[in-house]
């Protein structure tokens, strides 16, 4: 379409994002992979809803404290009614346990996943500047963090959401560190049962896990979430004065990816 179209031409367009939310090999929507993980790790609907409320509550607490201001680039748009300022994520929706309990299961009867405990498919953008030591010194840059190691792994696509667990283990092994050495861990919250399964599998304590909420609250702009998580972690390490953080995400099709940061400040 770069050079226009011929008169009378009929072009068909397909939303490949939606198509990508169903695994073509496993013949399963992503939500069903979370249901399978939930059953495997004996996660209840109450636990899944409670985790989602935790994500929303922690996000609100952090947002009210201004924690996200250092990592959000404010955008102002013109409108007939005056300027519209975008400086806060729009997706978060606080819910009560009673409200969550009323939401119907989406992927299977009496299932775990519902509209309240799954990440929202949102528009979003994130960017990072990654440089080598020599470039940082030459340009007199003051890095926020150092990338210590990263790993990607393959897993059974029918439980793709567990991918962060082996990816985190692999990155710890690569860096010769233990889980107890890590101060902050953020796993992308594709679905509450999925994130809970990773937390249970690794034994991550609540006080280190998704400490300012996650994708269930903020939303999951596919392709941008990894950069968002990375940017948030390096800012949060600096704010708390801690040394190590790991960001991780599952990947549809049966993968997991993890990255380890060290605070250089």
TrEMBL record:
Pathway: Lipid metabolism. GO terms for cellular component: mitochondrion. GO terms for biological process: fatty acid beta-oxidation. Keywords: Acyltransferase, Transferase. Residues 142-262 form the Thiolase C-terminal domain. Residues 2-131 form the Thiolase N-terminal domain. Coiled coil: none annotated. GO terms for molecular function: acetyl-CoA C-acetyltransferase activity. NCBIfam families: AcCoA-C-Actrans. Belongs to the thiolase-like superfamily. Thiolase family. This is Thiolase C-terminal domain-containing protein. It comes from Steinernema carpocapsae. The lineage of its organism: Eukaryota, Metazoa, Ecdysozoa, Nematoda, Chromadorea.
């Amino acid at each position: 379409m770069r050079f226009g179209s011929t008169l009378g031409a009929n072009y068909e367009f397909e939303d490949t994002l939606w198509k990508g939310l169903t695994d073509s090999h496993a013949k399963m929507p992503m939500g069903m992979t979370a249901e399978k993980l939930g059953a495997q790790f004996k996660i209840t609907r109450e636990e899944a809803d409670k985790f989602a409320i935790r994500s929303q509550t922690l996000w609100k607490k952090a947002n009210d404290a201004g924690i996200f201001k250092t990592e959000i680039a404010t955008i102002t748009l013109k409108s007939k009614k005056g300027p519209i300022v975008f400086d806060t994520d729009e997706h978060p929706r606080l819910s009560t346990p009673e409200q969550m309990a009323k939401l119907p299961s989406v992927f299977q009867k009496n299932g775990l996943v519902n509209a309240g405990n799954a990440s929202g498919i949102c528009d979003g953008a994130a960017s990072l500047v990654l440089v080598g030591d020599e470039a940082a010194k030459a340009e007199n840059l003051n890095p926020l963090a150092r990338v210590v190691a990263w790993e990607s792994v393959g897993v059974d696509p029918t439980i793709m959401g567990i991918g962060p667990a082996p990816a985190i283990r692999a990155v710890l092994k690569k860096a010769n560190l233990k889980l107890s050495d890590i101060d902050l861990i953020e796993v992308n919250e594709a679905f509450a049962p999925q994130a809970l399964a990773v937390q249970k599998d690794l034994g991550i304590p609540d006080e280190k896990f998704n400490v300012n909420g996650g994708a269930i609250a903020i939303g999951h702009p596919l392709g941008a979430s990894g950069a968002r998580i990375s940017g948030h972690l390096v800012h949060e390490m600096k704010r708390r004065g801690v040394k190590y953080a790991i960001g991780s995400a599952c990947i549809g099709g049966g993968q997991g990816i993890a990255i380890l940061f060290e605070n250089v400040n």
